[in-house]
Every structure is written in C-alpha cells, then in structure tokens.
Specification:
By secondary structure, the protein is an alpha+beta fold. The protein has a domain of 88 residues. The protein has seven helices and four strands; from the N terminus they run αααββββαααα. It has a four-stranded antiparallel sheet with strand order 1-2-3-4. β1 and β2 form a beta hairpin. α1 packs antiparallel against α4 and α2 runs antiparallel to α4. This is PepSY domain-containing protein.
C-alpha cells in the first residue's frame, strides 16, 4: 500500500474516532445498563406501589373492577391488544397494557392512538400508577438507541454506527500487515506505544464481534429457508394461529368494554 494512502487512512481513522468517541461511550454505557432494564424497573416502581396496596389476598383478584376502572378513565382502542398481568409475590399489583384513542393524529407517526401502561390495586381495581411516572429505566433504554431524541436520534445513532464501522475497517487496514505478529504485543516502556497496543487489540475484537452479529443473522435465515423449510412452514402456521387468536381476543374485549359497569 502506498505511503500516502496509508497516511490518509490513519488520519481518517484518528479523526473519526475522536469525533464519535463521546457519543459511542454514551450509547455503550446506556446499553450496558439496559441489559438490566427489567430489574431497574422493578426497583423503581415496586416499593412505592406495594406500600400503597398493603395486604391483599392472592387467591382473589377483582379483574372486573380493574377493567371498569380502565374503561372509566380511558377511551380504550378496542381494535388493538389489551393485556392484563396478574399480581405476583414480587409484583403485587395488576399491570395493564392497552391503546387509547387520541383526538388529533400524531403528525410524526400518523397514528390515532397511543400506548398506555397502568398499575392497578388488586384489592379494589383502582388505578394507582402510570408507567409514564417511572421513566428512569426507559430513559436509559431510549438513550441507548436514540439518545432520547426520538426518530431524529434514531437516524443519528445509525449514522454514528456507520462511522464506527468505517473506523473499524480503516484501523484493520492500517494494522493488517502486523496484525497477527503484534496481536499479543504489549509495550510498557512508552506511554504512546502502550495505548496504541491497547487500542489495536480492542479494535480487532470489536471488529470481530460486530461482524459476527450480522453474519449469524444471515446464516440463520439461509438455514431456515434452504435446510429447514418444514420449520419455516411450522412458524408460519403458528403466527397465523396467533393472529386468529389475537383477533378473537380483540373481538371479546370490544364486547366487554362496551358494557356498562352495572351490566358486568
């Protein structure tokens, strides 16, 4: 490789890494915490809700009152999924997920509804909390994939990821000739050489792990379509049955929520 080309790649590698390093650190750090998202959510909302609920009988939960409370407080969109999760020893409350009709269509997404997540008291069915009030875990999760900036942030993170891929490629090309020879090299004499060896090793492992994820996905798709067509057909049948079951659930819910409380 020509000296001028190698120098250009080195400069591009250095500047790209310098520019995107701060954003990548935020993305990676938030992603590491998001691995424990469910645990953080439980730590965040279970103690205050459990204190408000107090004692209750696990053998009897009044779901009729819970549904009536939701019906009276929200304009439920009956053409979407409606999910109720019973209380457990670790989550002593009813969780409900559903969609609410909104008056004005969202200008960004064009949707005429928004998702709602509420917590209900299993003793009397009253709503005691909203999922929007417990946002720390969700904030960290959104920080990981869109930096908390919505759709614009999602595109920005995708652009940063492309630059990260370019940095990995240029770094591999720069060190390609001595990649195997200096793989386990660690020079402790000079501070600059020490950091260079550490960066080279981390970049190599990063390039390998980044390339493995899409490769595994493509291999799985190829095996599914070429070697296991029966399994693919079986999955299609399951998805078809699930869709029919979901339609039946929505139809049942539509008939349920149109009833007045006195009719339940």
């Amino acid at each position: 490789m020509k000296t001028t080309t190698l120098k250009s790649l080195t400069n591009a590698h250095a500047w790209i890494g310098l520019i995107i390093s701060t954003v990548l650190f935020i993305i990676f750090f938030a992603g590491s915490i998001s691995l424990f998202r469910e645990n953080v959510l439980s730590w965040e909302h279970t103690p205050p809700l459990a204190k408000e609920i107090g004692q209750f009988n696990y053998g009897f939960v009044d779901y009729d009152k819970a549904i009536s409370s939701i019906q009276n407080s929200y304009n439920v969109e009956v053409d979407h999924g409606f999910y109720l999760f019973p209380p457990t020893e670790y989550t002593p409350y009813i969780e409900a997920y559903f969609a609410e009709v909104i008056d004005d269509t969202d200008p960004e997404t064009g949707e005429d509804h928004h998702d709602v997540h509420v917590y209900l008291n299993p003793n009397n069915g009253e709503i005691i909390g909203n999922g929007e009030n417990f946002q720390f875990a969700n904030f960290i999760y959104q920080l990981h994939y869109n930096l908390g900036l919505g759709r614009i942030g999602l595109y920005f993170v995708g652009l940063i990821t492309l630059f990260f891929f370019v940095a990995l490629l240029t770094g591999t090309v720069i060190h390609w000739r001595k990649l195997v020879k200096n793989f386990f090299q660690y020079r402790s004499e000079g501070k600059k050489d020490k950091w260079l060896d550490a960066i080279t090793l981390s970049e190599l492992w990063g390039c390998l792990s980044t390339s493995c994820m899409p490769s595994q996905g493509w291999c799985l798709i190829w095996l599914l379509f070429t070697k296991f067509p029966t399994l693919y057909f079986f999955i299609r049948v399951i998805r078809s049955d699930y869709s029919k079951q979901q339609d039946l659930t929505n139809h049942t819910l539509k008939n349920l929520v149109t009833l007045s409380p006195c009719q339940g």
